[in-house]
What does this fold into?
Amino acid sequence: MSVKVESYGMSNVGMKRFQNEDSYLINSDLGLYIVADGMGGHLGGEYASKLAVKTVEAWIERLISDPDVTQITGVNTQDADIGDQLRHAIQEASRRIYQEAISDERYQGMGTTTVATMLDGHSLYIANVGDSRAYLIRDGNIQQLTEDHSLVSEQIKAGVISEADARGHKLKNIITRSVGYQEDVEIDITIHQVKQDDKILLCSDGLSNLVEDEEIKKTVSDNDLPEACEDLIKLANSRGGDDNITVIILHFDE
It folds into this structure.
């Protein structure tokens, strides 16, 4: 049985920034959805996130439309899956951003988080680098499906600080992995089975730093997709909106 996907996304500059360095993609034809949160100054951050989204989209399109494009080991061979394609596409984005950064001093040190999803039947593949997140809202519960690659996340795992301490921590914006800061990047790939009426939310940390998981769950559960996106952004902005805010929500229906 095929799965239908309804989707909606919004991005907002927030209350403190002059420029939106987040980028997002909704490509229903490919079944590809991406949120990227750039860093590296107002020039580099915006450029890095846009370059990541465009490069990943172009590579996925290429790998799907032309399986013989180039025989890349583990990517478009018979044993490869969508997760391998996502990993390759994000790796190529990292190389491209890195090369741009070392060839133009305006972009030195730029990089971006990337969280991307693709569906294969009932299997949802999620690729993640950085601290943008994917959540599952199912049966009145919410679950974070990605792991933050951040300094505070490592300190939580080590038992140095609590999750409550992390929210207001002065180093909460320091990430330990990003796309493009180095030529090669380690990419987390996870696979999740989706069910009727599941909702997946992708967001930048401009939302997750200011809005609690339970508030995200309630807002997404109680509203249609455009209203939920709008209400979540309004909520983050009402609490200071100290970063750009980007949200994509997917609703699965058989």
DSSP finds seven helices and eleven strands in the chain.
